[in-house]
Structures are given as C-alpha cells and as structure tokens.
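Let's practice the habit of predicting before peeking. Look at the sequence and jot down your guess about where helices and strands might fall. Then scroll down.
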Amino acid sequence: MLIERTNKEVIIRLPASVDTTELQRLVDYLTYKEATANSKASQEQVDELAKEVKKGWWKANRDRLIK
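Done guessing? Here is the structure:
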C-alpha cells in the first residue's frame, strides 16, 4: 500500500488483490465522513431523521415485501 498526499488530494494505491467488497465499505465510510464533516446536527437530530427515513421506506416497500 502506498499513501501519497498532493496539494489537492490524498492518493491511496492498493494491490489488485484487495477484496473489493471490503474496499467499497471503506469508501462508503470515507464518503460519509466527507459528507458530514461540517454538519452541526446533533446525534438526536440524526437519529430522528433516520427513524423518519426508515418509516417512509417501510411504507413504500411493505406491500412488495409482505405477500
């Protein structure tokens, strides 16, 4: 593995043998960290939003999943 920093980005080079599923999970986490880096939301606000999203998802998918 090689980590290189330029003026505008950090470049991580990995061998082709790296498990892409685990790598995708890492990329998803880093994307989340980047997206939330400047958030001023409290954990309670985040939890409430997650609850609302899950409720909406269930309403939209319930009929498809329960037959």
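How did you do? Residues 1 and 14 are 5 Å apart (CA to CA).
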